[in-house]
Amino acid sequence: MRTNVRATPNERGSDSVKFDFSVLVVVTLRQRGQNAVPYKNIEQRKAYYQAAYAADPEKFRTRTAAWRKANAERVAATNKAWRARNAEKVKAARDAWNLRNAEKVRKQARQRAGLPAATRPAPEACECCNKPFAGRSAHLDHCHATGAFRGWLCFACNTGIGKLGDTAEGLQRALTYLGKKGTTCS
Q1: pTM metric for this prediction
Q2: Between residues 154 and 29, the one the model is more confident about
Q3: Per residue in 56-97, pLDDT tens?
Q4: Is-contact 19 5, C-beta < 8 A?
Q5: Cα–Cα distance, 34 to 29 (Å, whole number)
Q6: How many distinct structural domains can be found in the chain?
Q7: Average pLDDT over residues 16-44
Q8: What pLDDT sits at residue 19?
Q9: Contact 3, 43 (CB under 8 A)
Q10: Which DSSP symbol is given to 32?
Q11: Closest by alpha carbon to 1, among 16, 26, 22?
């Protein structure tokens, strides 16, 4: 419902605000001391608040912020109760946010796991075996001694390097083993 609001001075010099409704015109004078909303009808009350907010939105924002700060426990309890009653809506909103912000979610998960920040975006293929990541996730490889980011690997390469000790010596021992006579497949 849209209302017309205009402030006009009255006989004593203070101002009054007129709210024009389609059938009803209500004049509220400040000097009458009417602090309560003068309407029992929900639609009229809604229109009253919309018009008052339109006239001075900063006043309402400040008052709301002060009330929320003074009643922080009540606000938290109300929000918690709403989330409990609307668990499906909360989950749907969280899932939608996670989809829209997938890279941010992955970054936060890496930080929680204690992994270093990646210095470059993930490529299309594993940096070790060159197999494309199509349908698979890229794993952040890092040095366990220094925590430095090394690159993006597929799951198999990342776990293989890890199982060989994350060292060049471990890989060299594996190469030596594969190079021994009688251990090759060909």
Answers
A1: 0.44
A2: 154
A3: 999 999 999 999 999 999 999 999 999 999 999 999 999 999
A4: yes
A5: 8
A6: 2
A7: 52
A8: 43
A9: no
A10: G
A11: 22
